[in-house]
Amino acid sequence: MKLAIEGGNPVRKSLLPYGQQWIDGADISAVITTLESNYITQGPIIAEFEQAVANYVGAKYAVAFCNGTAALHAACFAADITAGDEVITSPITFLASSNSVLYQGGIPVFADIKSDTYNIDPNEIRAKITPHTKAIIAVDFSGQPAEMDEIIRIAEDHGLVVIEDAAHSLGADYDGCKVGALANMTMFSFHPVKHITSGEGGIITTNSKDYFDKLQLFRSHGMTKDPSKLLQNDGPWYYEMQELGYNYRITDIQAALGLSQMRKLTSFVERRREIVATYQNAFEHVEGIITPFQHYKSNSSWHLYILRFVNGYLKKSRKEVFEALKAENIGVNVHYIPVYNQPYYQKLGYQIGQCTQAEKYYEEAITLPLFPKMADQDIQDVISAVLKVYQAYK
Ligand SMILES: *Cc1c(COP(=O)(O)O)cnc(C)c1O
Questions:
Q1: What is the pLDDT, as a whole number, of residue 325?
Q2: Ligand 1 centroid vs 42 CA: distance in angstroms?
Q3: 93 touches ligand 1 (CB under 6 Å)
Q4: What was the pLDDT predicted at 292?
Q5: Exposed/middle/buried for 274, CB within 10 Å: 0-12, 13-18, 19+?
Q6: How far is the CA of 67 from the centre of ligand 1 (A)?
Q7: Quick one: signal sequence residues (predicted)?
Q8: Of the candidates 222, 258, 210, 211, which has an alpha carbon nearest to the alpha carbon of residue 50?
């Protein structure tokens, strides 16, 4: 069949995005109920939403933020990252994982990924530890938890804080435990392409009361009215600013949407796993394509489904495969450009070539559409398009 990029008919008439929210009537009613209530921000729904997420992941505390990036920034504050502190993280992640370190004046240090899981390699973390290392930000890439037992062991050996960037892995399990109570602090994002959405939103879950208090302080200008924490008390109106915090609060409107979405999380994750099983069947045995590998301890919640087109196997480059798939109306994407390749990081002096696995991975990866609302026909369209392009370029 003639490829759409060469003038043939595309597999689909309209573009299938790589990710998308699924909002239903119950979500809309929940938001309207909040809009009609006395509180549209800082009301009772935020705490309900936090409780629902904490219960789901099995953590004692949760603090919601206006987005996941703000939540990561708060986690770096709570971990006491300050000027000159080094924080080890993965280069194959969204910018926010390491930017949150920069916000605090810290120094992101990139440790290479493993060639199979694309998650940070614990041996590479060990090799990057210095006397200035303060924390590790592990990223659960694509929904597959990082090797948390090994990472926690390293952290214990060196007195480091572990922050898990679990923006991709709400609903995933590691070694039989839900992601969210493994690290010192775990961040989830509620951006519309993630597992559940609140429009914009993020949360930190933790078992530590100390982190919990710091996160709450940071979210609201570093300000407290809690009588037990005040240094003095002029009267019932009195508040104190004890740290330099931000306005990183989420609204009740967003929390209402998030809370309603939490009720569907289990079915969303199930559907993602079902779609991935269909993809795996279709692509597992195709020569020159590498399908996602699963570590035996992890049960991914599948934020992303990524194929690697082995360099040099097809007659065309990854870029040309990408463009051909786009022309078939498949909303492919690439996750991610190694963070240190970015001009801003280059200006800071980060060297290209420092993480060879990450760079090799970046040259070969293509993300296929994956979201729970995909119809069976959408899944078949993706498979047909990939095989069509593959056959034409073989
Ligand atoms: C989405 C995402 C974030 C940031 O979340 P926002 O809610 O968009 O600020 C951080 N890290 C990773 C890996 C993400 O995918």
A1: 98
A2: 23
A3: yes
A4: 98
A5: middle
A6: 8
A7: none
A8: 258
User: Mind giving me the DSSP string for 4-51?
Assistant: GGGTS--S-SSPBPS------HHHHHHHHHHHTSS-SBSSHHHHHHHH
**CA–CA distances in Å: residue 74 to residues 185, 218, 222, 248:** 10, 6, 11, 9
Within 8 A by CB and 6+ apart from 203, the residues are 50, 53, 62, 63, 64, 65, 71, 187, 188, 190
Residue nearest to atom 10 of ligand 1 (CA): 96
Torsion of the alpha carbons at 355, 359, 361 and 364, rounded to the nearest 10: -170
> What is the whole-number distance in angstroms between the Cα of residue 190 and the centre of ligand 1?
8
Residues in a beta bridge with 204: 63, 187
Ligand 1 neighbour 258 (Cβ under 6 A) = no
Q: Which of 21, 89, 94 to mutate to test the pocket of ligand 1 (most atoms within 8 A of CB)?
A: 94
pLDDT value of residue 386: 98
Q: Is the CB of 189 under 6 A from ligand 1?
A: yes
Helix locations, the chain, DSSP H: 25-35, 44-57, 68-78, 96-103, 122-128, 148-158, 209-219, 252-262, 265-283, 318-327, 343-347, 356-364, 376-393
For residues 179 and 297, what is the distance between their CA atoms, to the nearest angstrom? 12
Average pLDDT per block of 10 residues along the chain, 394 residues long: 96 97 98 97 96 98 98 98 98 98 98 98 98 98 98 98 98 97 98 98 98 98 95 95 98 98 98 98 97 97 98 96 98 98 98 97 98 98 98 96
Determine the pLDDT at residue 1: 87
Atom of ligand 1 at shortest distance to CA of 193?
1
Q: 137 C-alpha vs ligand 1 centroid, how far in Å?
A: 13
Residue nearest to atom 6 of ligand 1 (CA): 68
Is omega for the bond preceding 345 within 30 degrees of 0, making it cis?
no
pLDDT for the residue numbered 130: 98
